[in-house]
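Protein 1 of 2
SEQ + STRUCT:
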Amino acid sequence: MRRQLGALTVTLGLAAALVGVGAHRSAAQGQAHMVAGFTQLFVSPAGEPYRGKPGDPYPVALWFKQADLNHDGVITRDEFRADHKGFFEALDYDDAGYLDGPKIAFYESKVLPDLFVTSISRQQRRPGAGTPGIELANDVPGRDGAEFIRVQGSLAGALGGPTNQDAQQIEGARGPLPGLNAQRKARKELLGAAAYGLLQEAEPVRAADTNLDGLVSKAEFMAAADRRFNLLDKRHDGKLTLDELPQTVSQIELAQQERRGKK
């Protein structure tokens, strides 16, 4: 992926790549990760996609193998940082030291169009989008990337139906019974890369822009690497093992589908 990405951006130039390369992907269908037989998708902590075919191990194993530079079965902090550095440099095609709007747009529209292009389309089509009860990621503390939507209240409430507050006066299935102090659990929907990553970040590249200036510097990207390593290093021993990593939402769903298929 990185060698192909680097050759693509350097040889053709970013503008040409944005127009032509990857146009064969059917982003409008939201199924690009199934092209050429690939049915599994993992997005690394740095934001790099890894894809697998039916019957293959979930592609987190592919990322782990690449990031484990000395192949000793663990990823150290230095190796984790090197993985982030390599992907940043692949996106930073002109060695400017930062990722600006066009470079980030290239990542979202050409490297992972099946996630980001279709997520934006779904978000724009969503009933009630922009109404109370639906909160975009930029408004959710600790969550960056406009593809993550959290429904704070009932979607029905956003569309004019009864909310939890209204339901205190309504008995039965339309809401909790009065006096029980019951609340429906806030619905959460993961869009963008959230369902395919270890840390459920909607857009890992944009998430590194901590000063919100629209640019991702190399220093910001490496600082994000350190934060992510700390979150994943549950044993606090300075290294990651494959069995220590959390499963992605997609990985869990694939395992459930496989179990149902065997019944």
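Protein 2 of 2
SEQ + STRUCT:
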Amino acid sequence: MIIREFRPNDLRRVHEIEHMSFSNPYDVNILKQLFDFGTGFLVAQIGDYIVGYILFWIVEEDRGHIISLAVDQNYKRQKVGSKLINTAMARFIDFNIYKITLEVKTHNKEAVDFYKSIGFKIDRKVSNYYEDGSDAFKMYFNFFEDTEDIDNNHILDDIDK
């Protein structure tokens, strides 16, 4: 499996994964606009087949945000999501971003447990966050409480383990 930058010809497959993963998937045009805007956009590929993707960006000078992470149902529990999020986290570190946030549906136990296993913590619950009226957990990950004098290479070594 390789993790690589999204390319426009990946859009159809990414949209298929988006559609199979979420009850209210992003429209294909939104995914393209996010790419055109310069959002971090990575795909996981096995052979010539895209099996997952992650969208992320820097929302403030010291905070990154995971917009979306999805893995083809047939490739779950094969470390695809972990490799995608670890690669995104390494990109954040490259830009001295040490706090990462995301939202996840409160009833999506599989996703909540996945993020908790990586070290994300629940910050708070937000009622009616999603279009369908579902509640969300706002979750966060802090590499450090104090980001002074950080050795980025040491962090990258830890992420790769």
